[in-house]
Design goal:
Shape: globular
Structural class: alpha/beta
Helix content: 40-55%
Strand content: 15-25%
Number of domains: 2
Largest sheet: 6 strands, mixed
Radius of gyration: 20 Å
Distance between the termini: 65 Å
Number of helices: 13
Order of helices and strands: EHHEEHHEHEHEHEHEHEEHEEEEHHEEEH
Strand order of the largest sheet: 5-4-1-3-2-13
Length: about 375
């Protein structure tokens, strides 16, 4: 039996309160202060993961810091707490550790954490990219949008996931816009894409301007709050939100019936899986970053597969192949913790066509 562990953390204080009801009686500000001093927690035991080739079990372990704390507290303090969480995983018997949400972003993206543990560490970014691209292509196909002709915008293009998405899409699209705050880093990514693929991409740090003309948006920033709002997107846009916390406001899905918003990186795990913990998905479904850790365990490939901020296309291809081998599958199209039905997609397509006709008649 192969063994792994995956690090969770509350995105905000209410996430901790959902798991521990006593916390609901404490104000968010006070609870956030308390979280700083709570030691790592074993959240649940994961069983039933079975591929045609192997079986695995694991644990969810929690580092009790919110997303805001991960960013605002001292880097050394946060890294030390994540390392302590990793040591708990070691004691439980895990042979590899996966980093979730902001634990994979802090500092040098897992490198220091791996150096201070006896087991390898992975961020899960390789499989996250693979599933985000697959989900985006599937959504485009369903909506009748040709990737080659689409204006694709990547928010957070200088991060490891965003830059990798840009590299993969550079060979498949003609119009690509990269968005991030640091213009120098953007230019570096753009130059590499031009050198490797011959594609001249647009770069900007003005996300609102870029979004207005986007047919497809892949959102992967580490922003704490929503950055894509109701008024930002054109009719018929497809948005793949890979970020946690989400980059896309829930109001976009609620108020715009002419836009398709999908979650990136959600997969179905093979076997009679019991996570022992609910994070809002149906049974057997998990984030791709979690799944990467499971895949490496099933393969018996106990190595720090995805670490740091450099992510190669080869890593993504290898992880995608291993996922297919062990029976991991893209979990359909989902939006804000729920499956998108064929009827809903047909309605969106109808609304897009109607809005386009109205504009044409008005012109």
């Amino acid at each position: 039996m192969e063994k792994f562990a995956f690090v969770l953390h509350p995105l905000e204080t209410m996430d901790f309160a959902r798991k521990y009801s006593i916390a609901k009686k404490i104000s968010p500000t006070i609870l956030e202060g308390i979280l700083k001093y709570i030691p790592p927690i074993k959240v649940s035991h994961i069983s039933g993961i079975t591929s045609p080739y192997n079986e695995a079990e694991g644990w969810f372990v929690a580092c009790p810091l919110t997303s805001k704390q991960m960013i605002t507290l001292s880097e050394d303090y946060v890294l030390n707490k994540i390392i302590k969480t990793g040591k708990l995983a070691e004691k439980l018997g895990a042979k590899i550790l996966g980093l979730g949400a902001f634990t994979s972003v802090v500092g040098d993206a897992g490198i220091t954490i791996a150096k201070n543990l006896q087991i390898p560490v992975t961020t899960g970014n390789s499989y996250t990219v693979a599933t985000a691209i697959a989900g985006t292509k599937k959504a485009a196909s369903i909506m009748g949008l040709e990737m080659k002709k689409a204006n694709v915008v990547i928010l957070g293009a200088t991060g490891s996931i965003g830059a990798a998405c840009a590299q993969i899409l550079a060979s498949e699209v003609k119009y690509l816009t990269l968005v991030a705050r640091d213009e120098l880093k953007l230019e570096k990514v753009a130059k590499k894409i031009y050198a490797d693929f011959g594609l001249s991409v647009r770069v900007t740090n003005h996300s609102k301007v870029a979004l207005r003309s986007a047919d497809i948006v892949i959102a992967v920033t580490s922003a704490l709050d929503s950055i894509v709002e109701v008024e930002d997107l054109k009719v018929g846009a497809i948005v793949c939100d890979v970020a946690r916390p989400r980059n896309v406001s829930r109001k976009v899905a609620q108020l715009r019936d002419d836009i398709l918003v999908i979650e990136g990186g959600v997969v179905e795990v093979p076997g009679d899986v019991n996570f022992g913990f609910s994070f809002g998905f149906p049974e057997k479904m998990a984030y791709a970053c979690m799944a990467e850790t499971m895949i490496l365990a099933l393969e018996g490939r106990y190595e720090s597969f995805t670490l740091g901020r450099e992510l190669t296309v080869k890593q993504i291809e290898v992880m995608s192949q291993l996922a297919d081998k062990h029976g991991f599958r893209l979990a359909g199209l989902r939006s804000f913790e729920r499956a998108i039905t064929a009827e809903e997609i047909n309605q969106i397509k109808s609304n897009v066509a109607q809005n386009g006709k109205v504009r044409k008649d008005a012109g």
